[in-house]
Task: structure prediction
Amino acid sequence: MNFSFSSEEESFRQEVIDFLRPYRDLEGFIQQGEKWAQVEALFRAMAERGWLSIAWAESEGGLGKSIAFEYILWDEFGYARAARNPLSAGIVAKTLIRHGSPEQKARWLPPIRSGDAHYSLAYSEPEAGSDLAAVRTRADLDGDAYVIRGEKCWQSYAQNMDYFWLLARTGDLDSRARGLSLLIVDRHAEGLRIEPLPTLDGDQLNAVFFDGVRVPASHRIGPENQAWAIMGEALADERHIQFPAGRVRRDLDDVCDWAEAHELTGDPAVRARLGGLAAEVREAEMHSLNVLDAMIHGRQATAAAAANKIAHTLACQSIARAAMDFGGELALVMGDRPELLWRLSLWETIGGGTTEIMRSVVAREALGLGGNR
Ligand SMILES: Cc1cc2nc3c(=O)[nH]c(=O)nc-3n(C[C@H](O)[C@H](O)[C@H](O)COP(=O)(O)OP(=O)(O)OC[C@H]3O[C@@H](n4cnc5c(N)ncnc54)[C@H](O)[C@@H]3O)c2cc1C
Result:
């Protein structure tokens, strides 16, 4: 890889930094649930500039820019801790553009582009997290609608979203990956219930219960029973754009500032530890650029995106752990930066697929070593 941004892309970075000044430290990146009203307003302000659809083709209603612009956008959002890429624009819209019918695109893309429709991903279940092919939530056709029954868990942001992007079983009980379909489900549909699952950082995930929820058959994206192939691309998108290098750079900068403020950086051991972390951060950034490079050149990015997620989330853990090690009890003050980073870093290696599963993906996709997802 020999990657560099063009001068147009670099000036866009400056435009994003300027735009973000009023939103810097909104903390929507790490605590979106709590900050939803402000984050939603920020998404609308972005939508006015066409930034939620910046890399969609003009024929799909986007600005038709290179995906490098999108990368820069979310990199700087991560550094400013303003917000994460919304799952609607980052994952759902891209899948719709690849696999939706013209009618589905006309219906679902404009409200995503304008920041009026937000989605939560409803994949995981109590018995199907790493092993997504074990999903049991059923979607059975009844006339012109699917009837959904089952239970999902760990849905990020569901409490504030408008729709679920639901992975459900439409095939036989033992059909595994060959019997899954993707459906768009209105959060306010009759028979749907959401319960909060509190998280370590004071925010929440959710459990979602479907008790005979009727969903028009036209809300199925892609062919019935063939969601698995679609999911591969969607998960690669998630493991890239949801884990921008800017966030890791910021974690390290914050810990350096914190160490200086507490007069810890006079210690050569502390400086050496921070220097080592800088190398780890750079490595995470190289992984992010590697995925971007693959996407720009139309290469398969599954393994690169999994490697990106590993590097990014382990770097977050290394940074938080280092602050705990050299900060001692100072670093344990509740709500102070190192302590919060520590709590956040614990679950980042799980959401979007665990480190163990990401390593298996890399072994299979990059080393050709076979095995299950
Ligand atoms: C912060 C956060 C946000 C999330 N957001 C969402 C969301 O929006 N939507 C959604 O659907 N889900 C979401 N999830 C769920 C997440 O995708 C799952 O938690 C994750 O895939 C792991 O599944 P599990 O919790 O069932 O653990 P399990 O699959 O039960 O795994 C338990 C342990 O066993 C290990 N393990 C399992 N199988 C293997 C294997 N084959 N080889 C080696 N080790 C293995 C795992 O690595 C893990 O350490 C979120 C989770 C978190 C923590």
Observations:
- The radius of gyration is 21 Å.
